[in-house]
Amino acid sequence: MSGIVDLDVRFPRGRATLEQMRRASGLSAEEIREITLCEEIPVLGPDETAWEITRDAAAAVLERTGVDRAAIRQVLYVGSGVWDRPAWSPAAKIAHELGIEHAHCFEIVNFCNAGMTALQIASERTRLDGGYALVLLGDRLGRLVDYHDADTRPLFNVGDAGGAMLVGPHGCTYRHLHAAMHTDASWADFWAGEQGPDGAKFRRKSDRKGLSTVYMENFTTLAQQTLDAIGGKRGDIAYVLTNQGDRNIQSRFLDVLGLTEEQSVFTYGRLGHMASSDTVICLKELAGRGVLRDGDLILVASSGMGFSFGVTALEYCAEGSR
Question: Which pTM does this prediction carry?
């Protein structure tokens, strides 16, 4: 059975501070802090690129695992589709930089749900062909947030990070058991980018209410579908991780599943929402606690604009983590 062999993450040097957001937006510090839950967010600086920090995360994974580059048959770069250059393949660029010469390199766009989408695809492919896949999570959403537009305040917690997962059929730290995903396409136009003099920026296109309810309904339904698919029940869940977009939704989801906050990871007060890299960050922090036991069932709830939702079941394998 395939899964995550190893993973890592890198952060940019740049920071967007609450004070910068306050001055640009005209909102009060309290109004902004309700969203960010911290005083600064990691964002790409003017001389930084998403592909380079993502490459560095991938290089660390490959160095630790010692995997033969020739055994890597897919390189998947995921995110929003707004890459560091237009009409360009960051997957191919990073593969070349890392000496990966025999892989199919391509991109996947599913916004902050893209990491788990790519993990599902990579797990299925490596299960069939026996090789490895490198999943690269390298978005630059922080550049798309316009702090001068107070109407985009719900996105003021969005920042940048570069993540990497090596996926393969052997030596897995997290076995990929199942993933259930769904898109509520009626929300497709809630957020959209607009091209301006400083590049593309997010704009809210609708005042429609009820998105948090849609989140809860999808997470709950997909969690049950995933448990049913693996023959599990709620009492089998050891931990639940989510994108770090909304702390209230995460807490409510834990309550629905009958879990405590100690059975999850919260990075809101330190990092904000690092796009699809959130899931890699949370898995890395959970492992760093030293609490995982062989066979622990971890559900990862992810979501992205569109709006797409997913719940992925992972099984921790102590032997693979050594």
Answer: 0.97
